């Protein structure tokens, strides 16, 4: 059987006392699949990303990347992982090329090989001609493209993107979404794309995990989630699945 690119099982995390961010979270992201982690602000998406990248240790449960436990075998797990965090992490005073060369060096990629990979990724993103410009000279959409190019330099098989379109205009958002979908279709990369924007989901091809108040309310192909919710589209399903039910929910910290 195909090993999931990402497998989350019984994940629980709290920040002290009864303040739980996640409770019993479980889902899979398969190779080549574009999966949207859909939830409102405060649903627990960023906490989940921190756990999936090893920045936090779970209170209970497991995160496995291609079968490697993120806690017990972090080196093997992280080797196949690329990440674009919600907050930008590029050095504004370095050029595009300098930022990418620095990241490549951290992964032990030699200069000649790094430059070949950088040229390839920047060309795919229509940014190669701007490789000599400082990051602060780029607009938000171009900076996000650089972060994606950086995340792909070490040839990951799983890409996590936490609210990557925050602050971007509509054309830039659409360009970014198309490019990441192409990575799944053409390169077989598995993607977990966290968002609170329903229009970033392609109902024909995407999978969705609905996260609300720290719990998974539904997961699977969009058509399956809609059918199980008894709704005609993602927007209706999301409204139904996240309807207020204080008695069944818990206090959520993040």
Give the tags.
254 residues; alpha/beta; Rossmann fold; 2 domains; 6-stranded mixed beta sheet; 8 helices; globular; disordered C terminus
Give an overview of the whole structure.
With 254 residues, this protein is α/β, with parallel strands linked by helices. The chain has two domains: 1-80 and 156-254, P-loop containing nucleotide triphosphate hydrolases (Rossmann fold), CATH 3.40.50.300; 91-155, no CATH class. It has eight helices and ten strands. The chain has helices at residues 45-52, 74-79, 96-106, 111-124, 140-152, 170-187, 222-229, 234-241; strands spanning 6-14, 20-29, 34-38, 60-65, 68-69, 81-84, 158-162, 190-195, 207-212, 215-221. The strands form two sheets. A six-stranded mixed sheet has the order 6-7-8-3-9-10, sandwiched between helices. Strands 2-1-4-5 form a four-stranded antiparallel sheet. Strand 1 and strand 2 form a beta hairpin. Helix 3 crosses helix 4 (111-124).
């Amino acid at each position: 059987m195909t090993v999931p690119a990402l497998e989350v099982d019984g994940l629980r995390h709290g920040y002290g006392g009864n303040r739980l961010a996640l409770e019993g979270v479980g889902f899979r992201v398969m190779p080549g699949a574009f999966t949207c982690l859909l939830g409102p602000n405060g649903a627990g998406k960023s906490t989940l990303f921190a756990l999936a990248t090893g920045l936090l240790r779970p209170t209970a449960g497991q995160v496995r990347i291609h079968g490697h436990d993120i806690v017990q075998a972090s080196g093997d797990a992280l080797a196949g992982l690329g990440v674009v965090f919600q907050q930008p992490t590029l050095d504004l005073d370095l050029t595009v090329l300098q930022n990418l060369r620095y990241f490549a060096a951290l992964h032990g990629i030699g200069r000649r090989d790094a430059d070949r990979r950088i040229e390839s990724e920047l060309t795919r993103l229509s940014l190669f001609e701007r490789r000599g410009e400082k990051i602060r000279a780029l607009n938000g959409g171009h900076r996000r493209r650089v972060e994606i190019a950086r995340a792909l330099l070490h040839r990951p098989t799983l890409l996590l993107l936490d609210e990557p379109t925050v602050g971007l205009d509509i054309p830039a958002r659409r360009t970014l979404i198309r490019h990441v979908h192409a990575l799944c279709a053409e390169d077989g990369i598995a993607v977990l794309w966290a968002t609170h924007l329903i229009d970033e989901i392609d109902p024909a091809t995407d999978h969705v995990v609905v996260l609300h108040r720290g719990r998974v309310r539904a997961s699977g192909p969009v058509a399956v989630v809609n059918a199980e919710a008894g709704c005609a589209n993602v927007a209706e399903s999301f409204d139904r699945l996240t309807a207020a039910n204080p008695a069944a929910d818990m206090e959520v910290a993040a």
